[in-house]
Amino acid sequence: MNRNNSAVRYCAGIFLLLMVACGGSKSALDMRAAGFLEEAKKGNTLTERYDMNADGLVDMEKVYVNIKDSQGKTLKLLREKRLDLDYNGKFDLFSRYDSDTKLVSEKIDLDFDGRPDATNLYDKGVLREQRLAPGFDGRVSVWNHYDEKGILVKKGRDTNLNGQADTWEYYDGPKLIRIGYDRDGDGRPEYFEDSEAIR
Fold this sequence. Notes:
alpha+beta
């Protein structure tokens, strides 16, 4: 795949993700009316399947578990969601949720080749780490780290593609303030440039 095709597929993937995010405010009843196909029960697990573009194929699956609360009332909790963003019959976005139905993780195939290119990790529904394979080859070479408010504070880069970060960028809000370099391959930066040197 050449660079232009990679860029086009990446942009298409981001566009589809934004469409999905913007459509996330619909109620469960609206979703069932729009494209609900079927549901399957196994033990205390319920899987709902949806066809969002009316082509007869499953484009989304939601997996729920039924648990009883302290009053004995049965609760239906979302645990997983799978989306086929380009409607080719394969899921491209896999989301997992905790017992409070807050996001725990997402795996996203941005170029639709069957391999995840981005993994997002959450704590109490807040994005804390993002692992990216910008070469669309399944090899993670960028790690973004976020604070408890979901703001980027550090970015690690694997510049020699040996599987571990060797360059770190440190941020204060949107501003890059420092870069650290690992020159001896021990996984820790020994040399730093501050914001004045970066300019």
